[in-house]
Amino acid sequence: LLLSGSSGDSARPVSSDSLMTSAELTHGGALPLAPRGRALYKALCFCALALQGAVLDFYLIAFTDLSWCSWIATDLVVLSGWAIFFIKNARNKRERACGFHQKSCARGAGLGEFTYAYLAWLIYVIACTPKMVLVVETSILELLTLKVPCGVTGFKCAVLLCAPLLFCLICAVTEDGTGATRHRAHASFLSTCLDLLDSFTLVELLLRNELHAPPLRYAVLCAFFLALFAPVIWLHELTVHELTCHSLCARFFTGLLVNAPLLAVRCFQVYAHGAPVSVFLFKNVFMLACRALELVEQCVSARGARALAASNPGHFSHGVSENDMCPHGYVNTLAVNQL
After folding, report:
1. Torsions phi, psi for 12 (to 5 deg)
2. By the 8 A CB rule, do 164 and 51 touch?
3. ∠ CA 277-278-279 to the nearest 5 degrees?
4. Domains: count for the chain
5. Which of 202, 247, 177 lies closest to 27, judged by CA?
6. Domain range spanning residue 170?
7. 299-318: string of b/e by CB count within 10 Å (b at 16+)?
8. Where do transmembrane segments lie in this chain (predicted)?
9. Residues 264 and 215 sit within 8 Å (Cβ to Cβ)
10. How far apart are CA 306 and CA 313, in angstroms?
C-alpha cells in the first residue's frame, strides 16, 4: 500500500505495524477490547439466559398443569435469537470496518457497536415477563415457600439475574474499552439498575403479601417491568447516530412511567399506613425533575442543531474519511493530498 504526502513528495512504503484499522480510527486510536474477553461475556450471556429460564421453567412446570414444551420452546427461541444477534452484530462490525455501510449511516440507520442489541433485549423481556407474572400472581409463590429449597429467595435471585445479563450484553458487544459509547452504555446501565432496585423494594412487599389493594400491586408490577424494558430505549439510542426528539420523548416517558407509579405507591404507604419515608421516594421526585429538564434541554439543542444545519449547507472537508482506510481507499487520500 502506497500513501502519498504532499504533491511533490514521492510515494513511500508504509510498514504493516504503522497501519490502523478504521475501527481504531473511529475510536481515536484507542485499543479495542480483546476478542477473548468479548467471547467470555457472550458465553456468560447464554449461561445467565439458560439459568434464569431453567429456574422459572421449573417453577411453572412443577406447580402448574401447563405444558412444559411451551416454556422450554420459549427459552430455545430466546437463545436462538441472541445467537443470531451476536452473528449479525459481528458481521456488521466487519462490514463497517471496510465502509460497506457508509450509505446507510448517512441516512441515519445506526450501524455502531450496539447494532441489533435492543432487539435482543426486547426478545428477552417479551419471553421473561409472562413467566414472572405467572409466578407472582398465582399460588405458585406460596408453594415455593413450602416445597422448594430457598423458596422465594431463589425466585428473587432468578429475577435479579436480569442485571448481570444486561452488563454482560454491554461488554460482549463493546469494542473500545475507553470509548464514549461504552461510558454512555455503562451510565445508562447504572440508571437502569437503580430503577430496578427501586421498584424491586416494593416488589418485595408484594411477595410478602403486604400490598393487598390490586391497584397498588399492578402499579408496582408495571413499574418493575417498565424498568426492565427501559434498556430497549437506550440501547436503540446507542445504535443510532443522531439523537432525535422522538427518542428523547420515549426515554422521558419511560422514566415517567417507572418513577410516577412508585412515587404514588410510596406516598400512599406513608400517609395511609404510616410507613417510614423511604429514600427512594426522594429518588423518584429527583429523577422525574431531571428527566423533564433533560427533555427540554436536549430538544432545544436538537432543534438548534437542525436549524444551524439548514442555514449552513454541507461543506467539503479535506479530512480523510473512514472510507479511505478501506480497499482502494488510498486513491481518495491521494486525491485529497493533491488539492
Report:
1. -135, 145
2. no
3. 125
4. 1
5. 177
6. 35-310
7. beebeeeeeeeeeeeeeeee
8. 68-87, 116-133, 153-173, 218-236, 248-271
9. no
10. 11
Query: Could you report the per-residue pLDDT of 63-122, keeping only the tens digit for each?
Result: 877 677 788 899 999 999 999 999 988 888 777 767 654 444 444 444 567 888 999 999
Q: How far apart are CA 21 and CA 226, in angstroms?
A: 40
Residues 272-283: tens digit of each pLDDT? 888 888 899 999
pLDDT value of position 226 = 93
252 in any annotated domain: yes
Cell numbers representing residue 295 in the block: 427533555
Full-model pTM:
0.76
* Cβ neighbour number for residue 11 with a 10 Å cutoff: 12
Q: Which of 128-132, 158-162, 207-211 has the lowest average pLDDT?
A: 207-211
How many Cβ atoms from other residues are within 10 Å of residue 246's Cβ?
9
Q: Is residue 330 part of a domain?
A: no
* β-pair type (2-3, 12-13): antiparallel
Which residue from 140, 139, 195 is spatially nearest to 162, judged by alpha carbons? 195
| Residue 242 pLDDT grade (very low, low, confident, very high; cuts 50, 70, 90) | low
- 418513577: which residue's cell? 259
Q: pLDDT category, 167, cuts 50, 70, 90?
A: very high
Cell numbers describing residue 2: 502506497
- Asked if residue 26 is part of any domain, the answer here is no
The three-state DSSP-derived secondary structure of the chain is CEECCCCCCCCEECCHHHCCCHHHHHCCCCCECCHHHHHHHHHHHHHHHHHHHHHHHHHHHHHCCCCHHHHHHHHHHHHHHHHHHHHHHHHHHHHHHCCCCHHHHHCCCCCCCCCCHHHHHHHHHHHHHHHHHHHHHCCHHHHHHHHCCCHHHHHHHHHCCHHHHHHHHHHHHCCECCCHHHHHHHHHHHHHHHHHHHHHHHHHHHHCCCCCCHHHHHHHHHHHHHHHHHHHHHHHHHHCCCCCHHHHHHHHHHHHHHHHHHHHHHHHHHHHHCCCCCHHHHHHHHHHHHHHHHHHHHHHHHHHHHHHHHHCCCCCCCCCCHHHHCCCCHHHHHHHHCC
